[in-house]
Amino acid sequence: MNILIVTQYFWPEEFRINELAATMAERGHQVTVLTGIPNYPGGKFLPGYGFTRQKTENYKGIKVVRVPLLPRGRGGGIRLVLNYFSFALIASLLGPIKCCDAYDVIFVYEPSPITVGLPAIIMKKLKSAPIMFWVQDLWPESLSATGAVHSKSIMKAVEMLVRFIYSHCDRILVQSRSFIDAIVRTGVDRSKIEYFPNSAEAIFDSAAECAGEMEHIKFPKGFRVMFAGNIGAAQDFETILRAAELLKEHGDIHWMIVGDGCLLPWVREQVEIRVLGKTVRLLGRYPLASMPAFYAMADVMLVALKKDPIFALTIPAKVQSYLACGKPIIAVLDGECGRLIEESKAGLSCPAGDSHALAEAVLEMYKMPKSELENMGKHGREFYLINFERNMLIDRLQLWMQELLKRE
Questions:
Q1: Is the per-residue pLDDT at 212 higher than 60?
Q2: Average pLDDT over every residue of 305-312
Q3: Structural class in CATH, domain 2-199+389-407
Q4: Which residues are 58's β-sheet partners?
Q5: How many other C-beta atoms can be found within 10 angstroms of the C-beta atom of residue 220?
């Protein structure tokens, strides 16, 4: 098949679409990616890229076509809106010129923003190719949940945009089963929706072998609770820091934070204000390739989301990485992901926003024999292989694409 992937984010930015695209190319498909100039998460163009250096690249056999956009800055306010709409507009104008081939299917990766669907619709009209749209974040719900938008009129306008984009998609894929009802309420026929969860990159399959690779970083001795990923409004660091305060007297329980995001300055300030410097360590952002080695140094992995109905529906993509590594998990969130942790027997879950419950869960794992923690990790790994293994999911994706082609 000749596949066009439309995504605002792509290598060297670190998103799950990178490996999915590479796997499709490895299987003999011709893959083109229409994307923007890389600027996530730092908000500035990555070295070697800029407005005057939009070039066509090759990544693992994939043709990567880049169009200009306004960088996101620190990811707040009008700057982020301009980032979203600049890509949607310029990709809609230049995409048809730069992506000249005839495509069998257009695959859209949508971790936010929903506007990534607009250039795909233009390409569909011009190329007569069906659209397969992979929903990672629900819009407009995620906008209100993170506090990004409060205006009812703006929310109504975004809702109309979402309906418009979904109505032009031939198949909609969702990363969480709980998304299905919300998408049906926008007017999409249930028969057009399929459950397609995230997997984890291949590097996480051998995380245990990476132990010791981070010796240059001084990890404290004791029980290590590790959070890895975006440090933003959705991740509820207020609850995490309150739990760390509650356990401050346990000096050998350490909270290891690996990542970056718009709330990192606030978290750093709060660690100082709350005098948590001895138990909360902010390790900074590292490339994806380093993550298995970090995970190997942790006793338990932490995932958290704010208390909001929309976040109760989602499964953070990091969860599949945690499971793939065979690490026990503490989840402080509601709904779908909490049920997943319990079903997999991979760890403990507690209600979103409940710092006392989180502290109790950490303390419970801290007191567990090492063998019990290892069993949780094994259960998680087994659950991952049955439900999220990448080749099984790619097989499923190929089948759906072929079905779309038969209908054309």
A1: no
A2: 91
A3: alpha beta
A4: 63
A5: 14
